[in-house]
Amino acid sequence: MFSTREIQNRVKSGYIERVTSRLKKMRKQLMDRDWGGLKLEAGHLAEGAQNFGFTGLSEDVNRALEVLNSSALSKTAINTEAKVAMENLFKKLDRFLVEEQDR
Questions:
Q1: Contact 54, 95 (CB under 8 A)
Q2: 25-38 b/e with 16+ CB inside 10 Å = b?
Q3: pLDDT in tens, 27-52
Q4: How far apart are CA 59 and CA 79, in angstroms?
Q5: C-alpha–C-alpha distance, residues 74 and 88, integer Å
Q6: Which end of the chain is more exposed for a tag (fewer CB within 10 A), N or C?
Q7: By the 8 A CB rule, do 96 and 58 touch?
Q8: Residue 103 to residue 101: CA distance in whole angstroms
């Protein structure tokens, strides 16, 4: 039988694994200028972060989403502000993953 703490740790580990796969997917979506997909993935990421108590991460994702939602986005041209916001978010997500793996 698993303790409540062990179950919480396993669920949290599952979330962290999903962050890794979402990050990879989001990087591809940015390259493909799939803005709709990128917004959707970021929204899921923010919601999950909030649910698992990673409020700082959730706030970072929501700030990047605000930029995406307030920008004119096109498949034919890259929006510099959106690109910078997402690249900054990716760096924060990379740091988050490194810190969580060290725990």
A1: no
A2: ebeebbeebbbeeb
A3: 999 999 999 999 999 999 999 999 98
A4: 22
A5: 20
A6: N
A7: no
A8: 5
- The CA distance from 15 to 34, in Å, is 23
How many CB atoms within 10 Å of residue 61? Answer: 25
CA pair distance 2, 97, nearest whole angstrom = 25
- Domain total in the chain: 1
**pTM score:** 0.88
Over its C-alpha atoms, the chain yields an Rg (Å, rounded) of: 15
Placement of tokens 């990128």 in the chain: 38
- Domain range for 27 is 4-101
